[in-house]
C-alpha cells in the first residue's frame, strides 16, 4: 500500500532515528507513552499491538493508557506520563480541542508529541492519520453506484472529532454529484454497536423509503446491519474502518453491507513512531502525514486484514 510521497523525504531520517533509539534504549533512556481514546475497539487494539511490537524491536519502555472517551481522564493520563519522564508521547485524542492543555504541558516538558489517528490542538510535532475525507468520498461513491444514482440515504454519525467530521464531509460532498440522491436524516450512533442499532431502528421507522445508510465507523455499522437485517428491508450499508467483522460481512456478498473504506492502523503507529524518533534525534519532520485508505467490497474483501 502506498502511504504518501511525503514519507520519502523523511525515510532516511526515520531509519537513523530507529537505529539511534535502539542504542539509547539499551541504556534504559528511551520511554514512549501512548494515550488511547479507547481500547474497547478492535481498531485501537490493533494499534496497541503494533505499538507494542515496534517498541519491543527498539527495546523501549512503554506506558499505555486508555482514556475511555473521557478527556479529563486523558489529560490526567498524559500528566502522569510526564511525571514518569517519557521521551515521546503518541497521542490519540478523544477530544481534539479539549486535549490542548496536555499538549502544551508536553511541549513545555520537552516531550516529542505526535498525534495519531485524530488531530490534536496545540504544539504537536506531527500528525499521522488516515485520509478520512477520502474515506467518506469512497464510501459515498460505492453507495451511489449500488443505488444507481438515486434514492434516499441516511448518515449514522459519531463523536465530533476531526476524523469523523471529515468522513461525513467527504460523504456529503460525494452525494452532491448525484442530484437524485437525497440525504433525509443524520443521526448520532456514537460509533457504538448497541446505540447504533437503536438509532438505525428509529431511522428505518421514520424513513420508510430509505435506500442506503452511511456509517462513520464499522462498529456502528455492525449495529446498523443488525437493525437492517431484522427489518427485512433492502437498505444498502457502507462504512469506514476495515474492521475484520465488517470485512467478513462484506465478503459474503449477499447482504446489506456492501463496502467499507479501510484504514491501516498498524501503518499509522509505525509511521508515527518513526516520525517521533526522527524528531527526537533532531530531524525536521512534516507537520502531517496522511495515510491512504482502501475501499473494500465483496470483490477484494477475501484475505484483507489490518
From TrEMBL:
Keyword Signal: yes
Residues of the Periplasmic binding protein domain: 32-278
Listed GO biological process terms: transmembrane transport
Gene Ontology molecular function, alphabetical: carbohydrate binding
Main subcellular location of this protein, as a coarse class: other
Positions of transmembrane segments: none
Compartments, record wording: Cell envelope
Keywords of this entry: Signal
Signal sequence interval, chain numbering: 1-24
Superkingdom assignment: Bacteria
Matches recorded under InterPro entries: Peripla_BP_I, SBP_2_dom
Name recorded for this polypeptide: D-ribose-binding periplasmic protein
Species, as recorded: Anaerobiospirillum thomasii
